[in-house]
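Worked problem 6 (solution included).
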Amino acid sequence: MNKPTPLRIGFATAEYPGWTPYGGIGVYVQTMAAGMAQLGHQTFVLLCSPEQSAREETSNVPVVIVAPRGTIRLPFPIGRGSGMMVSRCLAATARELHLDILEAPEFGGLTAFVPAKDSRPFKVVVRLHMCYSLVRSLNNSRPTSLKEVATNFLIDRIERRAIIHADAMTSISTRTTVETLRVHGLSRDDIVTIPNPVSPAFFDVPLDTTARIRPDPTVLFVGRLEWRKGPDILVRAFPEVLKRFPKARLRLVGSDTPTAPGDNSMLNHLRSLVTGEVLSHIEFLGARPAGELPQIYGEADVCIFPSRWEGFGIVCAEAMASGRPVIVPRNSGFAEHITDHGNGLLSEGAESGDLAKSI
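Solution. The predicted structure is:
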């Protein structure tokens, strides 16, 4: 088989206030960039961020900071105010690097204001991860002001525009494609599904090959403490687990978000769901550096990701790569790579009793 012609490819991501570029999208960007480099292509991570400081990197792929001169805070969405300049600056960086392909997520409309197809020397690929409209809906977010209504409208508009004007599109799952096109009222039949890759670091987690159940098993959740990701379902299920395994521990790894009922702290909401005795068996570890995650997975006996909806679930793939059993709901993109009682267990969504039984 002939090797493909080497290309110059830029994988773009952004660091918005409260969002890390090394979350799900960032893991994809760095892993895919490294993988394409191994195939002989020249790749770059294009990080849209006003911060010029050194970043955590998981490969030797160069990270290029993209920000208009004088930017002190990356606006969200990109289309608000001077935010259009971020997209223009991204396009200028793509030209300076002589890219053949620029790839970016639909989230935030990062490519919405690059030049039109016939006036740019590179192709634009838009990758569907999770559009902001879906995030708002799943978190039961309701605008509290006209300004917020206008901002949400703008986000949806520029994400929609990015999808319409893309030269090509990929998606992390079929369900993500279907739901994104539905909420934006669009139709495209050329979207290619490419599941998220997993960092090789997770395949190096030591395996315990002895068939046993420890008296003090560790149950693990990794992900933002966000209503959409269902950590409350797991916390409500945990007292039933303790009846069977009184020494069990529940560890939750992830940053807090204001997505609990009433737009309150999810961390505080989770703590309020259980009594003091049960709470003593639960550890909230907060957000952890990517380099610590393989060890955290390695210390778990079972990994639970009870999302109310998930496009793919990179943490589930990381847990599986680490050789850990997983439990996920039947909904959304999980079911595209999990077979019940095959390579995992499927639970019935928001039913904490069913989740406890599965654990």
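Discussion: The mean pLDDT is 86.
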